[in-house]
C-alpha cells in the first residue's frame, strides 16, 4: 500500500496533457509535467511524495519535503494568518500549523520544530508545534550515549531539546561553547537521565577520551604560540572559553593531566610547555 504524506515509489500508468498519472493504490495521482523526468515512459517507477494541492486534490511531486507524516523537522515561517502560520517544508505548497497547534505565536522568519501529522479533523497534512503529546518519559541511556537533538527553545537555564524525537532534554548554558540556535539539530551526549524521564545532555562526550582531546587542543595552541599562553587555572572562565572553547572545569582537568605528564608548567598567570 502506498501512503499519503509519505515518499512512495509509484509506476507511471499513463500520460495526459497535465502530466503523468501514477498508480496510487486503487486510484491514480497526477505528477505535473514540470516534475516528470525527461524520457519517462509508461511502466517506469518514480520516487514521489504524495500530498494535497491548494485545491485539496491528491498530487505527486519529486521534490522532497523536510519531513514526512510522522517525522519532526525545523522549518521557517514564511507567512502568518489569523488561523495559523505557513512554514516552508521544501514543497510548493507551504505547511500549515493551525493556531490550535501552536505552542506560542509564530513569527515570520522564525524557525520552529514541528511534527508533520495527518489532521484527523480535515484529513490534510499539517504541522504541530505542541510537542508534549509526542514525548515519552521512559528514557534509558548510559552516560555518554550519543543522541540527536532538535533545539526547541531557549530558556533561562539553557536550551530545551527534543532528543531522538522522543524525549525532552536540557542543554545547560554553561555547557555551550559554540553558537546554538532554535531549530538546530545537534549531536549530543547524555550526561544524566533524570527521575522525571528528562535528559541532561552535553555537546561534549563526558568520557576520558574527551579529556585527552582537550589536552591535545591545549598542546596544539601552546605550540602555535611559542610554547606559552597567558591563561591559567586562576583565569576568568570567559577568558578560558574564548581561548580554548572549554569550560573552566574541563580546562583545569586537561592542564592537570598535562602537568602530571610533565608536558606543561602551570603558573598563576600563564601555562607553558616544558622544554
How is this structure best described in words?
The protein has 275 residues and is mainly beta. It has 4 domains: 7-61, Nucleic acid-binding proteins (OB fold (Dihydrolipoamide Acetyltransferase, E2P)), CATH 2.40.50.140; 72-132, OB fold (Dihydrolipoamide Acetyltransferase, E2P) (Beta Barrel), CATH 2.40.50; 143-201, OB fold (Dihydrolipoamide Acetyltransferase, E2P); 208-273, Arc Repressor Mutant, subunit A (Orthogonal Bundle). It is built from 3 helices and 18 strands. The strands form 4 sheets. The protein has a 5-stranded antiparallel beta sheet with strand order 3-2-1-4-5, with no helix packed on it. A hairpin with a 2-residue loop joins strand 6 and strand 7. Helix 1 (208-224) packs across helix 3 (248-260). The chain is elongated. 26% of the residues are buried. The model has no long low-confidence stretch (mean pLDDT 91).
